[in-house]
Specification:
- With about 120 residues, the protein is an alpha+beta fold.
- The protein has one domain: Roll (Nuclear Transport Factor 2, Chain: A).
- Strands 2-1-6-5-4-3 form a six-stranded mixed beta sheet.
- The longest helix is centred in the first third of the chain and has 14 residues.
- The radius of gyration is 13 Å and the shape is globular.
- About 15% of the residues are buried.
- β4 and β5 form a beta hairpin.
Amino acid sequence: MQCDTLVDRYFAAFAAGDLDAVAALLVTGVTLQDPFVGVVQGKPAVLEVYRNLFRAARLDLSLERRFRAGATAAVEFSLRIHGSDGKVSAVKGVDLIETARGGIVAIRAYVEVVPA
């Protein structure tokens, strides 16, 4: 699968909270780097991070600019997180998504908390 297709499918799956669809895009040795969870290595561990997020919150994702260089994409986004406790938080950031071997091999999130 091409980088653009993988990235499109990843963000659609993330926005829908579809863990199975996210799982289908990740390679076995995927790495997730996120300021809220640190560095997480391996598909099972990365999927656990997403499972916990999808269970705990409803997500409103808005994609903004996208840049691609070869098999790596940088996607600027805004995310409102509606927690099960009724609290709403928001972040803006950039995901760097590296692709290879027909899947996503790394996701590095750079985010800042913004007023909800």
